[in-house]
Amino acid sequence: MSFPNLDQNYKQYEVKEGIVFLIELTDSLFKPLATLDDHSQLQEILLCIDELMSDMIVSFYKNGVGIYFYNSEETGSKFPKKSGLTKIFSLNDLNSSNMKTLSNIVRDEADGFKPLTKRYRPRAEPLDNLQTVLRMILREFQQKPQYNRTKLIWFTNNDKPYLNPEAKDSLRTIISDFEDNNIFIEPIFLDSYLDEAQTKRKEFETSLFENIFLNTNFLNRVLRETRHAEEQNSGSDSFDAINKIKTSIARLKEVRRIQISCDLILSDGPGIGGALGCSIKGYTLFDHEKIKASKNVYTEGEALKVVQIDSSSIRSDTQAEVEIERDNDGKQKKIDAVKGLALKYTNKVDELKENESNERVLLLPENVLQDMKSYSFDHVPQFYQNAKDLSQLEVSSEPGQLEEVSFSKVPYLKLLCFRQLNSFQPFFNLKPALFVTADLDDGLGSGNREGGFANSRTTFTSLYQSCVKLKRFAMVFGCAKLNSTPTLYALYPTNTDGSNSGNAVELPDGFLLVSLPWLGEIRSLPEYVLTEQSKYFFEDPARCAPLQLVEAFKKVIGLVGTSEYNPESHSNPVLQYFYKTIKQEALQMDIKDEDQTVEGNDWSSKELLQLKTLFTEDRALGELVLSINSMLDAIGAAEGSKRAAEDSDIQNGKKQKARPLNEADVITLWKNDTWGNVTVAQLREFIKRYDSIKSATKKADMIANISNFLESKQKTK
Amino acid sequence: MADKELTIFVVDLASPKNVCNYVLNAIAGKLLKGLKTDLVSVVLFHSQTTSHSSASSGKFKGINVLLDFEQPSYIQLQRLYRILTLDSEVCEVTPETSDLVQSVLFSSTLLAPTKGKVFTRNIVLATDVASVINTGSVEKIESVPKFLQGLPVNMYAIVHGLKDNNATEVRLMASHFKTSQVMSDIEADEVVAHHPPVKKTRPVSLFRGDLRLGANYSRVLTDPSYDADRDNSCVSFKVDVYPATKSEANSLGIHEYLVENGSVVKLDRSTKYFVWEKNFQGEKVEDDEAAEVNDKQYDKIPIEHSHITQGFKFSNFDLLALDSDLKQAATLKIQAAFDIMRFLDVDSIPIAYLTSEALLVVPEKDSSFRNITNHNAFCISLIEERKAILARFVKKSEKEIEVGVLYPVQIKDQNLYTHSLVFIRLPFKEDIKVGRFIKLSGQNALKQKDKPSPDLASINNMMENFIEARTIAEPEAKFGANHIINNGKISMKSLDSSKLPLIPKGLLATEFFASDPGANKFSSKLRKLLLSSLNFDEMQNFYDDIKLETRSLDSSETNLFNLHNALAVNSPLKDPEELLKLAVKGIDISKKLAEEIGTAYVRKEDVKKRKITKDQPFQSKGNYGSEEKGYDEVPDFGF
């Protein structure tokens, strides 16, 4: 019998994306456009790439970018002579020197120091050598095999990719070569104008491009989007260059980080088992980006070097390193170690033989451990035989084609039941929800899976549509990854009515997989809230605060105002400030005039400053707040006098505050073990006076610490 | 620091063996946890051996104090196990031997070392309903409080043969304790299996200060002496912030060991630091651009820890030393603060935006009446207006700015309520990882070129029936009162926290708060393993015995998860069959649905086979597991 290897981590590859921008130089590319705030299209493209690189270094610093031009007057070195190819920098991992080069070019254009027209002059006569250009670009990709995802973003406003009709076939072959190398080509056809006033847009004729992209679907999206835009704007000019450039480049940051791939099993019971289900995949939607952890570096050498770590197993008895055998291929074998749990053997150490350890190890051999950690789900357990309702049902179920699926191995998610949407409570959130959608490969595409469900997309689509319609979410149970422990989830549909309004990040259709806590993961209220119940708890919510005060707060809420929060327009101030400073350091940029204040770098502080202005300027709001505070002060004063009366009662009737303890008191208490009447406050005050007595929070511990201290003193005497 | 607990197990040796199951499992559980603050005493009565501090006086005959105020140890558990499984220790029951009443009274005297200390004290009595009670003993029950000397003690009794109308003496005795539970041995086995201890983790405050609305922010930024609490032109609430949830990983102290000729050696990990440096081979190829770079051209150079400093890898080509100046320069000088920015409609916050563990924001410790009233009034107004708060939270100076939502909630504890705010982080722009996916809505969602698309309308019709059949019934009253948290764990006092497995009493009100069944399975199997090891004199022999174990499950109980046991641990399900009933309701429609859609489990192996024999129509084996029989997937070790 074979067991799945439970220790095997879920296979997930780090995405390393290589993006090449290929730009055809033409005269119109350099013309300032009114729709681009008098930027030229080329300037806009470079600005967007500059921004993209700054953003990408935060989240994906292992990605690579390259920027190439063709149809250039001057040909760059290392390119075939007179090919008209040149570059700003070749495809390479993001780095400060390339970033600096690009930001200098952008700056020089902005302040007119060296305009782009002077740097990259387009040829007057087209070379008609697109084959050469694309072949060179393909070679650039092939020289950098480290990227597991590759994209070519191709900007042009020239709708004649070839002049000689015979070039068509060879171009088509090259495009197929790109596809064979898994390089995705995204052509972006830029608009140009026929007149100086920029009113007449030149139609981009895509037929020649359709010829060369014939065997691929690279062009489909462009065509679809153009059609879409035409339908929406009935051919007006609003589908403009600026949108195209910005959105197409910003879209490059989009990622689909796959987190889980498993089956969602809906059915249960005899005759069907888990046969109704679908294969699903889960992706990250939101995840908090943090400053990358700092590394250990070695400073003594010529240049800084990252410190690496070698980790090895050593025997705890001899401290000798455990030699690792190598097999015939020179690969290291696993150490033949067994997991175990050490238990205390005895409390009477004198029962032990000489050199005998006071531990017994409960060893857990692999087969036992597998059994303890087996989380498979049984869809047809024997107790179904005893279920009362079942006998009636079995009559109605005809013998069908269906084969019973009796159990599911990890990874799986199993439906427990459905619930009404409005019974969902978000208050015990644990982590960001994953986004779940149908697995279009029916589970057969993932390496770690044994199989999957046919027609997953149909099942999933219907499940989604029905849940949205009936306003239900599903409760599911299971291990979504090979190495995870069983978890309870809510499978909550996205885009239910009203949940996705205009002012928010657009979410795809599907389900959110929300982790729900087990009991052990729910934390309790602090003890003081629970023990001083009369103070913090109340019977009737309506009577725990004066109505006037509640109404005043409602008015405040109305005046301060309600609006939605849209993450798109709020960046993380601390992260941005950190990377801004580090970028300046890495690119050796001038930071003299840099704003270092909190309000200058933190939008949330700015918003709070504005809120204060609202409080000062809106008289009604200001007065409301004053009246709230005076109401509260009155409540406080009434309570204060009541308290004072009670306190004096206590002081008159009962004991006074206990006097501080002196050394003699404590020694007497210790010798007679009569700590009962001493208060915690007295003990705390006493402990504070002596550095050598450890402080503690509980009375028992305080007494123990004082006793230890006295005992140690006695011994030293 | 963990709370201290003393449990005295009082075991009637003359009762049937299975009443001891609970005792053995409870002590085994404590030994596996190895807490120094969890102490036990074990008192056996009806024992041949009389052994206790006043044994010489001839009193309390037949009482054997096996353990007194000790941390459980392996050898002691083994001794106890052997006594409890052998009959030879049972003495003849005579009027002179101590009965259960006397034994419990005697055991109370063992609580003496906990006097004046903060302790949870439990007495667990395991006995038989037919256990002989001496004449005169029943009257002594009244003196239980005297023996307890005012100490709060919990009493748990396991009685073999317990019925509603018997064991009156045990029940009477239990009623004198602070809290008590009397259960039959069958119930006790159920408790051991499905109700592991629910522990309260001592809440640790994450932030204490003012939650401000409309504070003078320019002064906040510049003037450290500014106190919003004294500023009448703004509103401030004095709050403490605690975690509401915390992901928990199972943290049993499992290590790796080498097993060699009967002895066991623990393996430790050691780490060494090094850098890669070019060796002469590397130098040689340096000028040759065409040469390939490989591992052999580099050597590992070990380095000293003192030569290591912090650095930051900006890109694959840029490594910066992160000295304190640069670190300081790159840190935004923000102060710890908690501020309300504006309000949000409760229903406008997409669940997808909730990206952190939840935090509880409650009125501060030793709050004034003013502060609590303020807090209550604010929460009520938010709840009635169906608003939440957008807040800026800086837990620690110069660390992170968190922007999140504050939901107003009412936490229910029996018939009382308290107000709290629940804080959950929202994403920033950088945190958006939304990609593009297939569209699922609309009637044409499944339309594909050149393929007949399935009849979505008829499938949807069946799917809706399926969903209706499997929707759990919930009281209507809950809807519209979604701001009420009704969950016994959140309002658990530390006094209710116990290290013993117990019947949960009114702990939870909804069905979906249960303990982790995976962790429970692991720990109950571990206890079984430990208890079965006690039969062996040497651990090594036990290890050799189980290493080759391939016994299969032959009992009717499944070793796998199923609808019946997935939520059964500490579950309050009023009707544990509920999920099962729903499933049964849905069987018929799910069969029709599966046939209509044509779902079938397809194994990769079968797909490969199909490719080889192209001409034959593809016959799916259907299901994984179809060739395997019954429950044989994983053998069970029925220790």
Automatic annotation (TrEMBL), chain A:
Source organism per UniProt: Australozyma saopauloensis
Domain of life: Eukaryota
Occurrences of domain Ku70/Ku80 C-terminal arm (ranges): 565-652
Enzyme category, top tier: hydrolase
Cellular localisation: Chromosome, Telomere; Nucleus
Descriptive protein name: ATP-dependent DNA helicase II subunit 1
Residues covered by the Ku domain: 272-526
Domain Ku70/Ku80 N-terminal alpha/beta: 19-195
GO biological process, one term: telomere maintenance
Pfam families per record: Ku, Ku_C, Ku_N
Primary residence: nucleus
GO molecular function, one term: ATP binding
EC number(s) from the headed UniProt entry: 3.6.4.12
UniProtKB/TrEMBL annotation, chain B:
UniProt keyword Transmembrane present: no
Every Ku domain range: 300-443
Compartments where found: Chromosome, Telomere; Nucleus
EC id: 3.6.4.12
PANTHER family: KU AUTOANTIGEN DNA HELICASE, X-RAY REPAIR CROSS-COMPLEMENTING PROTEIN 5
Database matches in Pfam families: Ku
GO biological process: DNA recombination; double-strand break repair via nonhomologous end joining; telomere maintenance
Keywords carried by this UniProt record: ATP-binding, Chromosome, DNA damage, DNA recombination, DNA repair, DNA-binding, Helicase, Hydrolase, Nucleotide-binding, Nucleus, Telomere
Positions of region (Disordered): 610-639
Annotated Gene Ontology cellular component terms: chromosome, telomeric region; Ku70:Ku80 complex
GO molecular function annotations of the record: ATP binding; DNA helicase activity; double-stranded DNA binding; hydrolase activity; telomeric DNA binding
Name assigned to this protein: DNA helicase
InterPro entries named among the record's database cross-references: DNA_bd_Ku70/Ku80, SPOC-like_C_dom_sf, vWFA_dom_sf
